[in-house]
């Protein structure tokens, strides 16, 4: 399937992505999964971090061109692409794109309807704006990491880089880009989207701030309803070293959970906070009597809101996810399928991860940018 006939709700939307790592590429992948024609501008040389390009799944459904922004004519070539684009994604530190000649002013001068997306950890302004950082530091500063599970008095858990980079970063950038695109198409006026991981991660906690204001959430990890403080919402070890996740909050679901687990009529009430330790111990003792597989079989198909904690490989083979095609194999590599799903304009995996520069000639033709075909110019000196 060619880019011209690509399906998905964003078919026909053109995106320029200035190569980076982490949340910027993931946001661009999301747009590409939904049908946008994403052209990634890679720099000559090996990638600075990450897997081999053929296995960097965040570059799937994209095309790649090589442009050396530090060489004569490099910025001009990117601006030629920008002139034909709807969206741009960059993840440099504040001021870097401007120094390279592809900052918002230069790009909007060439294309006033462009939506210029900026992906950073700290944002474009503020005392930390020019500091280096990573997901764990951003969510720590935003007050999010402290709320991530763990026993009272112990350290918080580390949720990979999912909460900051991808939830607080990529998804907010994608929403911002699409909202601004809607405005640009209605008015002909583009704008800059400043997507900061600290902002997005903080925004994710809005519900918790409401609970906090109402006195239902404490700044003490492992003492709240949804952070492991409640025995009926937690993770328990099984006889074989596996784990079961319990989320039996509502009375009817908890009753079914307690019945299947065999807690007994004398078990403490889950809302009797002073007896939480006693109830947690009783639940843990019951789970320790059977294997994960045995408990899974007992809870399967019930409304007890209890599920096995699966590894990524196990999740890909789960009957429900297999039936929905949540995980797929594309060009021999298992991976998550595009999400969400659309009834009239379904998304699809069209291309494997773009190899740096592999699509330069094709994009030069499709986007009518002859300067690309000449390849990167040598740097002065």
Stretches with pLDDT under 50, minimum 5 residues: none
How many helices? The count is 15
Order of helices and strands: EHEEHEHHEHHEHHEEHHHEHHEEHH
What's the story with the biggest beta sheet? 6 strands, parallel
Integer average pLDDT: 94
How many beta-strand elements?
Answer: 11
Determine the N-to-C terminus distance: 43 Å
User: Which structural category do the helix and sheet elements fall into?
Assistant: alpha/beta
User: What portion of the residues fall into strands of 2 or more residues?
Assistant: 5-15%
Cross-sheet strand order for the largest sheet: 3-2-1-4-5-6
Alpha carbon gyration radius: 25 Å
Helix content: 25-40%
**What best-fitting shape do the alpha-carbon axes yield?**
elongated
What does this structure look like?
With 381 residues, the chain is of the alpha/beta class. 35% of the residues lie in helices and 14% in strands. The protein is built from 15 helices and eleven strands. The protein has helices at 23-33, 74-82, 96-100, 104-110, 135-141, 162-187, 197-204, 206-213, 251-261, 276-287, 292-299, 312-316, 319-324, 360-366, 370-373, and strands spanning 14-18, 37-42, 62-66, 87-90, 115-120, 191-196, 233-237, 243-247, 306-308, 327-330, 333-336. Strands 3-2-1-4-5-6 form a six-stranded parallel beta sheet, with helices on both faces. A hairpin with a 5-residue loop joins strand 7 (233-237) and strand 8. The radius of gyration is 25 Å and the shape is elongated. 38% of the residues are buried.
């Amino acid at each position: 399937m060619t880019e011209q006939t690509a399906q998905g709700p964003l078919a026909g939307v053109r995106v320029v992505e200035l190569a980076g790592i982490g949340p910027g590429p993931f946001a661009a992948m999301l747009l590409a999964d939904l049908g946008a024609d994403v052209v990634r501008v890679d720099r000559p040389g090996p990638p600075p971090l990450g897997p081999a390009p053929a296995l960097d799944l965040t570059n799937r459904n994209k095309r790649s061109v090589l442009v050396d922004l530090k060489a004569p004519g490099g910025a001009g070539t990117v601006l030629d692409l920008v002139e034909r684009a709807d969206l741009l994604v960059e993840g440099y530190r504040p001021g870097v794109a401007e120094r390279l000649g592809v900052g918002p002013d230069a790009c909007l001068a060439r294309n006033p309807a462009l939506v210029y997306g900026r992906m950073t950890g700290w944002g474009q302004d503020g005392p930390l704006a020019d500091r280096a950082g990573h997901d764990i530091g951003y969510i720590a500063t935003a007050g999010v990491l402290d709320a991530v599970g763990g026993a009272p008095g112990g350290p918080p858990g580390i949720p990979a880089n999912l909460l900051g980079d991808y939830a607080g970063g990529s998804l907010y950038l994608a929403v911002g880009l699409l909202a601004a695109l809607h405005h640009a198409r209605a008015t002909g006026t583009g704008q800059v989207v400043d997507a900061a991981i600290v902002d997005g991660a903080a925004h994710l906690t809005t519900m918790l701030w409401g609970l906090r204001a109402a006195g239902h959430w404490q700044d003490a990890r492992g003492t709240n309803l949804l952070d492991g403080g409640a025995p009926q919402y937690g993770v328990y070890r099984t006889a074989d070293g596996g784990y079961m996740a319990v989320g039996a909050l509502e009375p009817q679901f908890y009753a079914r959970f307690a019945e299947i687990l065999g807690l007994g009529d004398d078990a403490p009430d889950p809302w009797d906070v002073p007896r939480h330790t006693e109830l947690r111990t009783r639940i843990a003792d019951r789970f320790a009597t059977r294997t994960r597989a045995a408990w899974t079989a007992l809870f399967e198909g019930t409304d007890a809101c209890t599920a096995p904690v699966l590894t990524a490989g196990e999740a890909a083979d789960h009957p429900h996810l297999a039936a929905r095609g949540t995980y797929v194999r594309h060009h021999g590599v298992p991976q998550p399928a595009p999400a969400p799903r659309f009834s009239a304009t379904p998304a699809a995996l069209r291309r494997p991860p773009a190899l740096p520069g592999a699509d330069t000639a094709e994009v030069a033709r499709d986007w009518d940018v002859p300067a690309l075909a000449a390849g990167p110019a040598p740097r002065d000196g």
